[in-house]
Design a protein that fits this description.
This protein folds into two domains: 178 residues, Glycogen Phosphorylase B (Rossmann fold), CATH 3.40.50; 162 residues, Rossmann fold. Helix content is 38%, strand content 16%. It contains 13 helices and 13 strands.
Length: 363
């Protein structure tokens, strides 16, 4: 991928971005962390920052790339995920002295390296924080600097070593605009119980709307859910399953929908599906959970509901919303430029804090 650099920011930082080895950057279809890392890498590079990405060799970025594994684990690479993460950490460890700051997206797997590194390491948490293993890792590494991706995520562990909250940004101005509402509801993501696929099917049935499902089946649990709850509901013209799709198919689907349903009853840490839907002008109908109230303003960008009855009523109101306003607000609030500026501010604070610590000299 090629790209032109923008005006340099003075002084430029030497930044090492570290991606998981699971998917290439950017991912071919579904993949939240890798899409954000790609947007951040490209945004920093365009701004003239000295950014290097540590990612699988099948990644495609404008900035320098250090290949950590020959091929991402989930696109034909090694099935040994743990060993692949070790290879990532080995590669970063060898190069750590080349950077002013290292920005890890390995979450808890990067904590031991972050603690030991001679270079300041910032760790963005992309996932949920309410499971026991994650909370134990946060407590055991209370000195590791962290960034949350929403206030909701931050508040699940307010005692952790947060140094900032940076909401995701994507190149949303490239998204197609749907000036008029279509005739279907949309579900995008994974066939996972916590994502609200069962609720989406029920709301579509109650409102007599066609439901289009563009979603990935990831593991055995999701495969079981598909066979027991999704496949029996499939009907031409009523509930349609497209599987996992890439941007060329997914983006027009967003633009053509009447509304996107996000009815999962779990603390969604952010919600890339929400900002992409909004960027096409399509409102989001979501349960009032996790970070979604930080993204969706009720009655403006979509509707926040407390139950399926509320979702049913929201579907009836979706066409009344101003789709141009929805798009403009999303592009303004969730741009790559804003995300890059926010991270640069955190990098600067982190480096200042590390530099101000007194050096301990052995006697």
């Amino acid at each position: 991928m090629t790209g032109s650099r923008g005006r340099s920011r003075e002084p430029a930082f030497r930044i090492g971005l570290v991606a998981p080895p699971l998917l290439p950057v950017p991912p071919p279809a579904y993949g939240g962390t890798e899409r954000v890392v790609h947007a951040l890498a490209e945004g920093l590079y365009r701004l003239g920052q000295n950014v290097t990405l540590f990612a699988s060799a099948d990644s495609d970025v404008s900035c320098p790339l250090v290949a950590t594994v020959p091929r991402a684990c989930w696109t034909g690479g090694s099935p040994d995920v743990e060993a692949s993460f070790e290879r990532v950490l080995d590669a970063v460890s060898r190069e750590q002295g080349q950077f002013d700051v290292i920005h890890s997206h390995l979450e808890t797997k990067g904590f031991p390296f972050a603690r030991a590194s001679r270079t300041p390491v910032l760790s963005t948490m992309h996932g949920r924080l309410d499971d026991p293993l994650t909370r134990a890792a946060l407590r055991a590494h209370s000195d590791v600097p962290l960034v949350a991706i929403s206030e909701s995520q931050h508040d699940l562990a307010p005692w952790a070593n947060w140094v900032g909250i940076v909401r995701h940004g994507l190149d949303l101005d490239r998204m197609p605009f749907g000036s008029t509402a279509g005739d279907y509801l949309l579900f995008v993501g994974r066939i996972a119980r916590e994502k609200g696929i069962i609720q989406a099917i029920e709301v579509a049935g109650r409102t007599r709307h066609r439901l289009v499902i563009a979603a990935k089946v990831f593991d055995a649990t999701e495969s079981d859910l598909f066979e027991t709850a999704v496949r029996p509901a499939l009907r031409p013209g009523r509930v349609e399953y497209l599987g996992e799709v890439g941007p060329a198919v997914r983006d027009p689907l967003f633009a053509g929908a009447e509304a996107t349903l996000m009815l999962g009853d779990w603390p969604e840490p952010f919600g890339l599906v929400a900002i992409e839907s909004l960027a096409t002008g399509t409102p989001v109908i979501a349960l009032r959970r996790g970070a979604l109230p930080e993204i969706v303003e009720d009655g403006v960008d979509g509707f926040l509901v407390d139950d399926l009855g509320g979702a049913e009523r929201a579907v009836a109101l979706a066409k009344s919303l101003d789709r141009r306003r929805i798009r403009n607000r999303a592009i303004r609030r969730f741009s790559v430029a804003r995300m890059v500026d926010d991270y640069l501010a955190v990098y600067g604070r982190l480096m200042d804090t590390r530099a101000s610590r007194p050096r301990v000299v052995a006697s």
